[in-house]
Amino acid sequence: MSKFIIFWSCGSPGCLSLIVSANWFYQLGWHPGYPDIRISIAIYLVYWLLLGTLQGGALFWEFQNRKFAYHWFLTTTTTGFFVMLIHELPLIGMTTTGQGELILLFTLPCLAVLGGLILGVNQFLLIRKCNLINQRLNNLVSVGFIWFTISFLSWAIGFAGILFMSSSFNTPTVWILLVMGGSAMKGWFIQKYLRA
Fold first, then answer.
1. Rounded to an integer, what distance in angstroms lies between the CA atom of residue 113 and that of residue 126?
2. At what angle do helices 140-167 and 3-25 cross, to 10 degrees?
């Protein structure tokens, strides 16, 4: 396994671990759908800024393409943050009981399913715009399908990680490994299908 894939796979779990540590240290009791949207906004902003920076840095290191790395940072940070924020907006002013609980039960699965696809589409459009897909690949549709599948799985696993890690500081190691595996899939794709 290459250094790039190892670094890429550690990015999301590392950012999640920082969020969980701060949540535990300050005893916030935060979780997705938290009643105080200001805390959720701050947490999502810190997470996506950190993750976008780490991934952009890894891409610059791998491809030496400053423009691509910068655009990846912008795309990942803004898309991830706004997708998570859109989930929180219907819950403003509601508690996570009664009607708020019903909205949360409906929106969490939607976010877990659709978030990865939305992020995946934006990232794939960026990859195509920068013309980084290997010229030798004839079937762009199958490459796109692989990317969207990986984006969906990576997001769903990472989202489950947020739910489990925010509910308990003593997160089972298996969840950290699953989040690393989900991130590693994207790193593998980037190294396999994009040209340096």
1. 21
2. 30
User: Are 55 and 76 contacting, i.e. CB atoms less than 8 angstroms apart?
Assistant: yes
- pLDDT tens digits, 35-48: 788 888 899 999 99
Structural domain boundaries of the chain? 3-193
| Strand, coil or helix: 133 | strand
pTM over 0.85: yes
Cβ atoms of 119 and 76 closer than 8 Å: yes
Question: Which ranges of the chain have pLDDT less than 70?
Answer: 1, 91-105, 135-138, 164-172, 196
Separation of alpha carbons 109 and 105, rounded Å: 7
User: Per-residue b/e over 11-45, b at no fewer than 16 CB within 10 Å?
Assistant: bbbbbbbebbeebbeeebebbbbbeeeeebeebbe
Cα angle: 91, vertex 35, 175; to 5 degrees: 95
At residue 122, φ and ψ (nearest 5 deg) are -65, -40
